[in-house]
Amino acid sequence: MDNLLLNTFLVLISIIGIFSALYVVSQTNVFRAAIALALSFMTVAVVFFAINAEFLGAVQILVYIGAVSVLMAFSVLLVKDLQTASSSTIGSRFFLSLFTSILIFALLVFVILNTNWNKTDEIENPIINEMLFDKYSIDSETKTVLLVTNSTPESEVRDGLFKDSILPIGTLLSTKYFISLQLIGLIIVTCVIGSIAVTKNTIENDEEGDSEAI
What are phi and psi of 194, to 5 degrees? Predict the structure, then answer.
């Protein structure tokens, strides 16, 4: 029964996310599109929390809903006409974007259908079950996973990944993958600066054209 309720909830949230995403790409009002984009990101975060991926849900809220939505707000401030600024005309770029979107969608569907998704109730290894759903410890010398017993020190006991995924993933990102994380951050900042510069130059060129016409 719990699985049925969870699946129904995920389906409803996914439908809301799909319709909000469609509203984003079809809406000519920039402000409304930004609000719908934040809603679409929020539904993705809810799905992550529902499937016990707390770290991904937190990243979705902090990075996408926070940073990207703020970027969209700045873009709204830089746009002259909110009603028609995002209106598009059918041309070569439209068909190229449509083809690329369909190709990416087909690729994702192909990967999903051809992936052997293992169910959690089919896991037979007790150590893996303890790591995912209960508690476990790691031998400091051999770096192997051990089952928790009465003699295991409390300081060495860790919650399972499905109970608390934030601590182990956050530890890896701040230690082993720290440089990769910083490089991704620099790339995002570069994209933000470039998008604002392009928007600003476009607005200035439009203003110069209007003044020359006058």
Answer: -65, -40
Structure tokens at 7: 């699946």
pTM: 0.63
Instruction: With cut-offs at 50, 70 and 90, classify the pLDDT of residue 98.
Output: confident
Identify any residues that bridge with 159 across adjacent strands, giving them in sequence order: 135
* Cβ count within 10 A of residue 45: 21
Q: Which helix (H) or strand (E) holds 125?
A: none
- Beta strands in the chain, from DSSP E residues, in sequence order: 135-138, 145-147, 158-159
Q: Which residues pair with 3 in a beta bridge?
A: none
Task: Report the length, in residues, of the chain.
Answer: 214
In this structure, are 50 and 15 located in the same domain? yes
Are 86 and 27 in contact by the 8 Å Cβ rule? The answer is: yes
| Residue 173 · residue 181 · CB < 8 Å | yes
Contact yes or no for 78/200 (Cβ under 8 A): yes
Question: Are 22 and 41 in the same domain?
Answer: yes
